[in-house]
């Protein structure tokens, strides 16, 4: 297998078996990301939707607009956007049964005619040039194996002046201690992610890909209630997992994936609370 096939296979092995866990976390929103607790946000569901709103901030999306959601989970954001703005939304993931789940969700939410879900690896993103007014990555840039190549693909897919918005997991600037490096490795290994970029490194890449009007917002402090909530969940899940025999944990794919889910959740959430990781929004415009 090639390194790319291995990496994508690992994503499928992980995400393909934690669908119910993510859906339980998402409180009916089907948003598989950290919530953003702006002032006035009272619940996890609201915080998850606040992240969706942050992601489209400043994008002009009327009914004729086209958006692409890269790494769409089971369609929480894509269906929310289609309903909220009435635009056409295409969405991709590498997990085939998530496409089926997303199509069902679109039917339930009455937006099936405005949503199109497909199995596609973002590392091989192909699209007719100039198709989209907005491309978004919500906690998925961290899966692009060659970020320079990925951003070039996104740029080609955008109309002139189209926008690329992302919310991503990132790492603080400066050299890390041994403990911090281990925390980073554990988070990436558990969740099948590539090594995280610091925001300045990401900005250099985005500008290097030819994007203009690049801006960045650090929302780490506003994700901390989600981080604390996830740590509480990890305590409960770890107690449950520690009562099971090792042989069963290895043999049952759902349990092996749950163990990774919890290890990644603990590492990234603790790292956010300790300032090792930074939760970051990026906004950029294609030239033209
Ligand atoms: C943390 S979840 C975020 C899901 C969604 N963006 C959201 O915010 O609810 C990461 C998603 O990225 C998808 N993903 C990971 N690697 C991918 C790849 N190479 N191509 C397409 N999707 C990928 C996973 O299947 C999963 O749905």
SSE topology:
Blueprint: H1 3-15, H2 19-25, H3 44-55, E1 66-70, H4 76-85, E2 88-93, H5 96-108, E3 115-119, E4 132-138, H6 147-157, E5 158-171, H7 178-190, H8 199-208, E6 212-218, H9 220-242, H10 246-251, H11 253-273, E7 277-285
Parallel strand pairs: 1-2, 1-4, 2-3, 4-5
Antiparallel strand pairs: 5-7, 6-7
Helix pairs in contact: 7-11, 9-11
The structure holds S-adenosylmethionine.
The site of S-adenosylmethionine has 22 residues, from helix 1, helix 4 and strand 2.
Account of the 3D structure:
The longest helix has 23 residues, at 220-242. The chain has a seven-stranded mixed sheet with strand order 3-2-1-4-5-7-6, with helices on both faces. By secondary structure, it is of the alpha/beta class. The chain has one domain: Vaccinia Virus protein VP39 (Rossmann fold, 3-Layer(aba) Sandwich). Helix 9 packs antiparallel against helix 11 (253-273). Helices cover 48% and strands 18% of the residues. Strand 2 (88-93), helix 5 (96-108) and strand 3 form a beta-alpha-beta unit. The protein is built from eleven helices and seven strands. The structure holds S-adenosylmethionine.
